[in-house]
């Protein structure tokens, strides 16, 4: 064995799982020396410490008895107090403190980007829905799909939205083509047969909605035009053209949910049933983050409301309406009467109290004077003063005089 320490072979850093380099004899010798030295130092420190007396109840323990570490009292490096870790070669690693981490460097990103299309003016400043996903004030009535996807520019998104709107309303490139085949009256054959049968029975043809119009899909039920509103066809299952819609508001105007409920006395479950009464949804014109407006077709609402399933006839609806108005009025009157009676009762109690405080007795109409009552002047006849032209009147009870100018 030579005295000169030899250079250990190079560590191969391939997988990191290779067996550690074998220790050189020199390393082993130094480790052993260090171990023995440390052991001796620890034993010396242990023997130098006064042996702690057995703890006596009620007395303060010595600090050394609770401080188990053998850190020298003059140590200024707290990191050495933690048990030193040894790597596979037995060397002590530099102390690390996992709890204390350097602050993240905010300066690394140059600026924070805000996407204003996703932000909402909450009147307390612009807030992003990603910052505050549970804030109801920022939830718009429009659904999630109305948000601009990340990878789109604003111009692209605008075009996409127009495209979606056209598709939804089946307009522009999404309007179904008109085929010559649709114009063939073959579709009427079934209806014609029914019509003939009905006329033979002496019954007037009523049609689906009782207005004598024939409903053929794809054809305006009023003027037989093929240029129908396809949105309405999809939602209301009714074929009507734009011109006829404008011409006949009695049939084809749209009613809000409130109108349908209050004017036709329909209930919420009835209005919620899309099979019974389909409705068109529109964003609320008053506030975009309110619920969508629900619009019902007047023809369908009236057909249902006047049908035997509901009120039977417009007259019956009027009767019901009157009845409800009467009930509401009676309820209001009853409430007023209860209030009035309550007031009367309270007044009677008050009068009784006053009577007990007063001189006793007293006829109806007499003023009842009680303790702590405010004095009300009893003005006598007013006298005109000849010099000034003022009228003067005097309180009968307290003698106070006032002058007034009468006109
Ligand atoms: Zn028409
Ligand atoms: Zn007076």
Automatic annotation (TrEMBL):
Comp. bias (Basic and acidic residues): 27-36, 142-152
TM region positions: none
An example Gene Ontology CC term for this record: nucleotide-excision repair factor 1 complex
Listed Low complexity bias regions: 39-50
GO biological process: base-excision repair; nucleotide-excision repair involved in interstrand cross-link repair; nucleotide-excision repair, DNA damage recognition; UV-damage excision repair
UniProt keyword Zinc-finger present: yes
Keywords linked to the UniProt accession: DNA damage, DNA repair, DNA-binding, Metal-binding, Nucleus, Zinc, Zinc-finger
UniProt feature, compositional bias: Polar residues: 62-80, 89-99
Region (Disordered): 1-104, 124-152
GO molecular function: damaged DNA binding; zinc ion binding
Chief localisation class: nucleus
PANTHER family documented for this protein: DNA REPAIR PROTEIN COMPLEMENTING XP-A CELLS (PTHR10142:SF0)
Family, similarity comment: Belongs to the XPA family.
Protein name: DNA repair protein RAD14
Species of the source: Massariosphaeria phaeospora
